[in-house]
Amino acid sequence: MAKLEARNIGKHFNSVQGGGQSQQQVSAIDNVNLSIEDGQFVCLVGPSGCGKTTFLNILAGLDRPSEGEVVLDGKPVTETGPERVMVFQENALFPWLRVIDNVEFGLMVKGVEKAKRNGIAMQYLEMMQLTKFADAYTYQLSGGMKQRVAIARALAIDPEVLLMDEPFAALDSQTRDLLLVELQLIWARTKKTIVFITHNITESVCLGDKVAVFTKRPGTIKKEVAVDYRRPRLPEDDGLREYQRKVLDELKGEIAAKEL
């Protein structure tokens, strides 16, 4: 049985037309089906505006589908829950709190006592190579370090599924390449199930066990590309080019059609 399944997911919105005189239904995604195994790393790619983030929000329980269902461990998902945690493109950290307090925050909300949550937080800060910055404030950190804190905070809650919405998009290429390797090492250690949105084809094949390619809006999954290659993977590895071409070939028609 799959860990997480999307079954025939559709999401539709009402768009106001003609100065508010009429409404037209707009479909963001339509008939999305995806099966994700326990511990699998799945990347989602597709044209801008194809509904990837809408889909991720539905997996997280932040939004409800217009049709279809999300199933986690055989049970329907109807709301948010601690077993699914989102890491956003913007790190959403609290600048008035220290790094350690940010990482402890979710544990504090869950009622974990101070000494225990401090120990858990330090464990994940060590994993993210941030222990010496535990007492710093987040506004004192670089963009890449802030994203490491955000990932540590998410992992500290010990979710079963980690949902990541372009977490490296705003970073410089050097920092992104370093985090691509670090994230693979963390994934290997924690065995988390990860769903990761990206616009970067190299990033997708570097990280993913499989890459789900979305069509233009209304988005649906056009192709799943399996990436059977050794880890950890480096973005510059020539052996990944075969997989990059497969993903690009699927995307070309969708991007061209969207621009017409």
From TrEMBL:
From what superkingdom does this record's organism come?
Archaea
Q: Which UniProt keywords apply?
A: ATP-binding, Nucleotide-binding, Transport
InterPro entries annotated for this entry? Answer: AAA+_ATPase, ABC_transporter-like_ATP-bd, ABC_transporter-like_CS, ABC_transporter_ATP-bind, P-loop_NTPase
Q: Where is the ABC transporter domain?
A: 4-241
Q: Name one Pfam family in it.
A: ABC_tran
Stated name of the protein: ABC-type nitrate/sulfonate/bicarbonate transport system, ATPase component
Question: Which species?
Answer: Candidatus Nitrososphaera evergladensis SR1
Question: Does this UniProt record's set of keywords contain Transport?
Answer: yes
